[in-house]
Amino acid sequence: MPDLIQLLPDSVANQIAAGEVVQRPASVVKELVENALDARATDIRVLVKDAGRTLIQVIDNGIGMSETDARIAFDRHATSKIKSADDLFAIRTMGFRGEALASIAAIAHVELRTRSTDSDLGTQIVISGSKVESQKPIACDKGSNFIIRDLFYNVPARRRFLKSNATELRYIISEMHRVALANPEIAFILVHNDQPLLNLKSENHRQRIEAIAGKQSNKQHIPVNIETSVVYIHGFIGTPQGARKTVGNQYFFVNKRYMRHSYLHKAVMDAYSNLIPSDAYPSYYLYLDIAPEMIDVNIHPTKTEIKFEDEQLIWKILNSAIRESLGKHSIVPSIDFDTEGQIDIPVTFNPTEVKPPQISFNPDYNPFRKESNYNRPQSTLIPEWQELYKGFEKGGEITLPDDDEEEEILVLPSKGNEADIQTSIVNFEHDRPVEDATFFQIKNKYILTPVRSGLMVIDQRRAHERVLFERFINTIRSGNSATQQLLFPEILHPDTDDAVLMRDIMEDLGTFGFDIKETEPGIFAVSGIPDGFDNSRTVSFLDQLLEAYKSGEKDASLEMREQLAAIMARNACMMAGERLSAEEMTMLVAQLFQCNTPAYTSSGKRVFTIVENEEIEKWFR
């Protein structure tokens, strides 16, 4: 029987390793930038074109490499960071397995220009598909300059799996954020298609967080600092007011290495219990300094997961550190049992007669009367209990009179007038509100109205979402978007990741009536909004829109503008708990049943339900 087992060629083995190390252009950026950090660089520049498909160039001012080191660096498992097996338990560098350069060279055209600090001439090496094409001396700056062209040129299947340029660019920016946040003392520059996206100078942790997350983040974070014999934890956590509905800006760094750790994430969330909603997530930037022998960083191919020797102990320390910071900054109410001084109890040496306290009251007090009438004689008071029943004959909302609370009314935009609304109600079919229908609101959430078959219960927020969705869809199809110009433009300062996404959807937002321009790199001015849109919610709406895109609500297989209309409707509809007047309820219901699909929202959720007459009769048998 012939031998069946054989060694794989180096080119094939390198491509298999590349499948683990190089998943997308962002993986190349991560590996090369981490190598620059290990080379003690203080200035790192990253230049990409077409989101890394065409070009990735990483330039650093580190110690560089000699001619021999430059050549052997592209061999598998060639590394300067591991000498023996014991070194695996004392790793403080970023890369150490020696697979990055070999994997990159296996699936791209690679050029390296490098010069060490003690050499007058550098070395240039050109490699394609793991094959060295040339190596020669060259005059170049100190440090290393990696040029990666045509990524996955010899693996077309992998290239087809790459997503859009905007998506791949966001992955690259995310990797740069992680490295930059872990190393604030290093200067970073990121340029895409000759457009600068990041320009970070050497600074401290707070300044670096502000430069990446935006200037407004400085007021939304509080410091954390605790040092124990096991671990030193420092960094910043977000205030409960800054918590978002989607995951974002949650960072753990262990010995300057970014990591994901669901168990420690639960420690953070536990510290925020009863402070934020269960579906909200606070931001945090937490740095853990721990002895290398107490962790294992070699449990994941991309080294984004770390195993601790005693995870429960780290959990408790982290949880208590966050609780302490929240308490110190008056976020968590606390009781102080320590009092300064003693309470002096006066002693009466000349006892006097003790009299019971006198209580005065108004026998004519009526809680249903206005305050201005309390002091009037009873004979002049008008019975005001009848005010409670006002609105029954008009179909209005039943409310107790309250002079101190102003009623908040959401004005629903409408092209029609009251006569058109009444006509539309008259023309409703069976199981729709009857003629001259009366509408009642319960808990500022549901609208009740009688129909021929029973009682209709409408979710007012979902109804408004359905109305807005069809209005946005009609705007797309007609191409006639009405824009309301703002007297004072709203200025947006999104972080780098959100700025890329904003550029990607600005043109589509213009279809709906938004007038948004990028006045400076990373700064956007909103000069116009759709007609009838609430100006006070413009900034929060756009923030929620970007979060919806990042959280995966957008499906590439569907028409983009229709998805944008659905996301806009979900985020632009009325807030939960809006109190509506009788006219607003009538208008909203009329607009709902003018929609093509009034029963469901764009995401398939039920808008209304009907309690049958037979079911109601059963209640009273």
From TrEMBL:
InterPro entries: DNA_mismatch_repair_CS (IPR014762), DNA_mismatch_repair_MutL (IPR020667), DNA_mismatch_S5_2-like (IPR013507), HATPase_C_sf (IPR036890), MutL/Mlh/PMS (IPR002099), MutL/Mlh/Pms-like (IPR038973), MutL_C (IPR014790), MutL_C_dimsub (IPR042120). GO terms for molecular function: ATP binding; ATP hydrolysis activity; ATP-dependent DNA damage sensor activity; endonuclease activity; mismatched DNA binding. The keyword Cell inner membrane does not apply. PROSITE patterns: DNA_MISMATCH_REPAIR_1 (PS00058). Keywords: DNA damage, DNA repair, Endonuclease, Hydrolase, Nuclease. Residues 438-580 form the MutL C-terminal dimerisation domain. Residues 209-327 form the DNA mismatch repair protein S5 domain. One of its GO terms (biological process) is mismatch repair. It comes from the Bacteria. SMART domains: DNA_mis_repair (SM01340), MutL_C (SM00853). Gene3D superfamilies: 3.30.230.10, Histidine kinase-like ATPase, C-terminal domain, MutL, C-terminal domain, dimerisation subdomain, MutL, C-terminal domain, regulatory subdomain. GO terms for cellular component: mismatch repair complex. PANTHER family: DNA MISMATCH REPAIR PROTEIN MLH, PMS, MUTL (PTHR10073), DNA MISMATCH REPAIR PROTEIN MLH1 (PTHR10073:SF12). HAMAP family: DNA_mis_repair (MF_00149). This protein is involved in the repair of mismatches in DNA. It is required for dam-dependent methyl-directed DNA mismatch repair. May act as a 'molecular matchmaker', a protein that promotes the formation of a stable complex between two or more DNA-binding proteins in an ATP-dependent manner without itself being part of a final effector complex. Belongs to the DNA mismatch repair MutL/HexB family. This is DNA mismatch repair protein MutL. The gene is mutL.
